[in-house]
Amino acid sequence: MKKMQKTFFALGTANTVSVFYDEGREIQINNTLNKIKSRILMFDDMFSVFKKDSEISKINSAAGKSLVQICPQTYEIIKKSVEFSKKTNGAFDISAGSLSRLWKNAAKTKKVPDMDEIKRHAGLTNYKDIILKDNKAGLRRAGQELDLGGIAKGYAADEAKRILKEENITNAIINFGGTIIAMGDEKQIGIQNPDAKTGTYIGTVIIQNKAVVTSGLYERFFINNGNLYHHIIDTKTGMPSKSGLISVTVIGNSAFEMDALATSVFIMGLKEGIKLVDAFHAEVVFIDENGDVFLTRGLENNFLKYGDGVNE
């Protein structure tokens, strides 16, 4: 069994596709990896809030004014996101762009925004204000912004999987900034220890033909007056989530769904999060602020914690 790998930067992160194959398919594998790279770079041009000419930036600029003609893929990702917002009662909401930008700027300056400013931006967040009509999209109120940062990697990973299957490539690992899809043979996936440096795992899961996504407060944060402010924002309060969780890892069939689910469950907390997970037939590893690990039933025999036979 041979391995071919391609890594490229898009959607704000490093993306790696690793393919395991038998001798003699090198040209086909290489062409497929290049096709995936081109497709994801196209998504980056369409979805990025940092590119003025992206379709998302155009929608944001036209907020409260007019609808913007968009490509089928942009229409689809927005439509799917709105549907997910309905299922989570707004815990996941791509219309939180202005609120996300406020906290990203706060992280740069390490200063907590003024409470009135937080309330103003939180008040602009409402997925019900997203308009989709005749291949066009828009926002009802001026100042509203879309941000696909919490979902684009999952959507892109699912597309990479689709392309691989289309080319009859069945054994691979797709890793788009920690949004992972394992195809073919069983793969051992490490789960980050929230209290340790990146690459130190609290344990592993064995998966096959599943997507794995982790949301954790350790990913991006800043300290102000001894308080930690992380990047997972509860849109109802406008503040970093205080659900009692520090990490959530979800495992299921769709990377898009798991990307959105990880964020939603983190915000909703353990008790409410489990109900949502059941609706998506997913499995979850929860880690709370005390460092305790909780597993859904399907992982009880599949999560190997360090100290339980797993080598670090």
Keywords summarizing the entry:
eight-stranded antiparallel β-sheet, alpha+beta, 34% helix, 312 residues, three-stranded antiparallel β-sheet, disordered C terminus
Describe what you observe in this structure.
With 312 residues, the chain is α+β, with helices and mostly antiparallel strands. It has helices spanning 26-47, 55-61, 72-87, 97-109, 115-123, 152-166, 255-268, 270-279; strands spanning 2-10, 13-21, 68-69, 130-133, 136-139, 172-176, 179-183, 187-192, 201-207, 210-216, 221-224, 227-230, 233-234, 239-240, 245-252, 283-288, 293-295, 303-305. The protein has an 8-stranded antiparallel sheet, with helices on one face. The protein has a 3-stranded antiparallel sheet with strand order 3-5-4, covered by helices on one side. Strands 8-9-18 form a 3-stranded antiparallel sheet, with no helix packed on it. The radius of gyration is 20 Å and the shape is globular. Mean pLDDT is 94; it is low at 307-312.
